[in-house]
Structure prediction request, 176 residues.
Amino acid sequence: MTEDKNLMMDLEYGIDSRYKSGLESVSEATALMEARLRRMKMLSNDQITKARLLQLKLKMEEFINHPVYDNHNHFSNFLKFYIDSIYSKRSIFAKDINVDPVSLSQVINNHREPKDEFILKLMIHSEKVYKDVCSFNKKIWYQIYFNNKICEIMAKQEQWQPDIEKQVRISEVTKV
Prediction:
């Protein structure tokens, strides 16, 4: 009976009960990691880029579906990852979308909000880039941007709410 209970606990916590010792477990984990590294070294730059773009798309969709209320600028983080995945220099990306490199840097470093035209260019650019990778909803950049704004505001609610509440009153309420 205790063996069944131990087996159930192992399954529950994802422990492989085939290992007789911790040393055997570590040895297998090391061998698995070495095999993964050998396989990764065989990937072409194109395969790595496609994998990074797919990873970015999944992270962006996760953020849209499950926003995180914090003070981090997720838009600029996603933008950095996108650019760095496909370009060796950010200035080349800026040239490709006809944006001043200084303006791009300011958006990436959270010194400036992206203008609508910037996001529109980003939408078209990513639509072309993702064409050979996977399906990509081009409006995702706007969704990320606006979700980011909501998250920033909600993360700071304790700071702004007391002052704002003092300015809001209800003088007449009609019964519904």
